[in-house]
């Protein structure tokens, strides 16, 4: 696939190098971000330029940013959010001037994805992330403390030790915010930034809630096809787009991913796809992550790729979380080897579809 990418966490934080990424066959794009700019601040041109140059010097392209995160004042609809809109608009302009075409973001209150186990061992000896609802009976505070004291070494995104004190306060700010209010806050944000996106030719691509179900009483608004239709209608523009994350949406067994792809790719609303598989552990929808292959998980990756092919998808795509294999110990879900195998597999399916 022409715009196959690989997520990279930057020189400082990622044990994987750009030259390793360059050697994954069929990979042309790096999906990157600045990790040292506080949420809500403008991304400085100089830093974007450095990242861009690094990626291009390695023989790769940087056209997708994941993520430019959204300040909680915007998500919670606080007074004073307007200054963050201006900052976000400026960040879009700065990114556009270095050739960025897509910005992935999410609108999950407080956290990014949530798992209860970052190092679950599969029968083959590899490690993956797992989600069990039983682990969630505890209060968020208790879970936060457990994660903080956990032995995994890595924290969940948004649960980093330096952020945890603020996080406890943030729960109060979201108390009583309904799904509808969160939707209004997203619409207000999109109305402020999409005109700038249109002007700069940068597409926004919202990432699904992961897992796509209510958590800790916090509102959640991108869980299924109905949510997507509501988000699509908020601002009628192809620049108001989606990241279709097959794993995240697939974590709800009633989401039909090929049908979602067929509907939204046909309407030109999908600039970015995350392709990965998961496997359900029981009827309650507890799941763990797996290798990308259909046979390894519960999702039919052939049908997913076929839906993309049939709808002439020509956006950006990347493998998502993989297993940690072959002795790898880095960031959960973001090792080199299994994601590289994922790329080879996805490109193989695509070549067969093309022929
Ligand atoms: C990613 C998300 O690691 C992942 O699962 O797909 O963290 C994603 O980067 C964000 O939700 C997008 O803002
Ligand atoms: Mn994803």
From TrEMBL:
<keyword id="KW-0408">Iron</keyword>
<dbReference type="InterPro" id="IPR004628">
    <property type="entry name" value="Man_deHydtase"/>
</dbReference>
<dbReference type="GO" id="GO:0008927">
    <property type="term" value="F:mannonate dehydratase activity"/>
</dbReference>
<protein>
    <recommendedName>
        <fullName>Mannonate dehydratase</fullName>
        <ecNumber>4.2.1.8</ecNumber>
    </recommendedName>
</protein>
<dbReference type="GO" id="GO:0030145">
    <property type="term" value="F:manganese ion binding"/>
</dbReference>
<keyword id="KW-0464">Manganese</keyword>
<comment type="pathway">
    <text>Carbohydrate metabolism; pentose and glucuronate interconversion.</text>
</comment>
<dbReference type="GO" id="GO:0008198">
    <property type="term" value="F:ferrous iron binding"/>
</dbReference>
<dbReference type="InterPro" id="IPR036237">
    <property type="entry name" value="Xyl_isomerase-like_sf"/>
</dbReference>
<keyword id="KW-0456">Lyase</keyword>
<dbReference type="Pfam" id="PF03786">
    <property type="entry name" value="UxuA"/>
</dbReference>
<comment type="function">
    <text>Catalyzes the dehydration of D-mannonate.</text>
</comment>
<dbReference type="GO" id="GO:0042840">
    <property type="term" value="P:D-glucuronate catabolic process"/>
</dbReference>
<comment type="similarity">
    <text>Belongs to the mannonate dehydratase family.</text>
</comment>
């Amino acid at each position: 696939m022409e715009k196959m990418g690989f997520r990279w966490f930057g020189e400082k934080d990622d044990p994987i190098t750009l030259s390793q990424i360059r050697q994954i066959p069929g990979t042309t794009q790096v999906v990157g971000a600045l990790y040292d700019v506080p949420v809500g601040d403008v991304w400085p041109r100089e830093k974007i330029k450095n990242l861009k140059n690094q990626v291009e010097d390695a023989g790769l392209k940087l056209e997708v940013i994941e993520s430019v995160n959204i300040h909680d004042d915007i998500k919670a609809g606080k007074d004073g959010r307007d200054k963050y809109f201006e900052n976000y608009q400026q960040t879009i302009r700065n990114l556009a001037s270095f050739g960025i075409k897509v910005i992935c973001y999410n609108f999950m209150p407080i956290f990014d994805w949530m798992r209860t186990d970052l190092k679950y061992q599969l029968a083959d000896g590899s490690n993956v992330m797992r989600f069990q609802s039983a682990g969630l009976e505890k209060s968020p505070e208790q879970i936060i403390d457990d994660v903080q004291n956990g032995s995994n070494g890595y924290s969940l995104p948004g649960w980093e030790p330096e952020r945890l004190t603020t996080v406890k306060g943030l729960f109060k700010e979201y108390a009583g915010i309904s799904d509808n209010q969160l939707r209004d806050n997203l619409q207000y944000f999109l109305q402020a930034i999409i005109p700038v996106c249109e002007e700069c030719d940068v597409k926004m691509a919202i990432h699904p809630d992961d897992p796509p179900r209510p958590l800790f009483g916090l509102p959640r608004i991108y869980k299924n096809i109905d949510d997507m239709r509501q988000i699509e209608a908020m601002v009628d523009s192809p620049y108001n787009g989606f990241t279709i994350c097959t794993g995240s949406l697939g974590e709800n067994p009633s989401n039909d991913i090929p049908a979602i792809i067929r509907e939204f790719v046909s309407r030109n609303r999908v600039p970015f796809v995350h392709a990965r598989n998961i496997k359900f552990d029981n009827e309650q929808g507890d799941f763990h992550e797996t290798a990308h292959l259909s046979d390894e998980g519960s999702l039919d990756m052939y049908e997913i790729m076929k839906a993309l092919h049939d709808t002439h998808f020509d956006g950006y795509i990347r493998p998502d979380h993989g297993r940690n294999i072959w002795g790898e110990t880095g960031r959960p879900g973001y090792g080199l080897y299994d994601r590289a195998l994922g790329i080879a597999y996805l490109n193989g399916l695509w070549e067969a579809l093309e022929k």
